[in-house]
Design brief:
β2 and β3 form a beta hairpin. This protein has a single domain (2-68), classed as Alpha-Beta Plaits. The protein is an alpha+beta fold and 87 residues long. It has two helices and four strands. Helices cover 32% and strands 26% of the residues. It has helices spanning 11-24, 39-52, and strands at 2-8, 26-29, 32-36, 59-65. α1 runs antiparallel to α2 (39-52).
């Protein structure tokens, strides 16, 4: 499945969430990630995010789609991370 993930967490938890999300998805902009992920990996990501978050203060939003081909992406301005380039 294709996922776009967005988080808004307190300053003290921001670096932990960044590192967590980078393990599962491609970083495209501050607090925004995208990529293909299995259902099992997605559940792992959600579980680990809940361990970092303070649920009364923070948010983690996931937009899910079965296939990236169903999503049109338009970037206006500089694209921070081109997911077509891998090291």
């Amino acid at each position: 499945m294709y996922v776009i993930a967005v988080y808004d967490v307190g300053d003290k938890r921001c670096v932990k969430m960044l590192k967590l999300c980078r393990r599962y998805l491609h970083w495209i902009q501050n607090s925004v990630f995208e990529g293909e992920i299995t259902e099992v990996k997605l559940q792992e990501l959600i579980h680990e995010a809940k361990e970092i978050m303070v649920e009364q203060e923070d948010s983690f939003i996931l937009f899910k789609n079965r296939n990236a081909a169903w999503l049109e992406k338009q970037v206006v301005g500089k694209e921070r991370s081109n997911i077509g380039q891998f090291l």
